[in-house]
Write a structure and sequence with these properties.
Elements (H helix, E strand, L loop, with lengths): L1 H9 L2 E4 L2 E4 L9 H12 L17
Antiparallel strand pairs: 1-2
Helix pairs in contact: 1-2
């Protein structure tokens, strides 16, 4: 559980010329790590700590 909180704290979005990217892995946000951590928090009932993720573009 603590790992999920750490992932969401570090893998934060930022705006670049290529769109919204993850600050740590530089992939489009939400990156796979953020989606997985958020899923863990939602499944374990920590909805207050989960983040609202933007919809994933199916074209990516």
């Amino acid at each position: 559980m603590a790992a999920a909180f750490l992932v969401l704290a570090r893998h934060v979005p930022y705006h670049s010329a290529l769109g919204v990217r993850c600050r740590i892995c530089v992939w489009p946000y939400p990156c796979a790590a953020v989606r997985l951590a958020n899923d863990v928090l939602v499944r374990t009932g920590h909805l207050d700590r989960a983040v609202t993720l933007p919809p994933i573009d199916p074209c990516c």
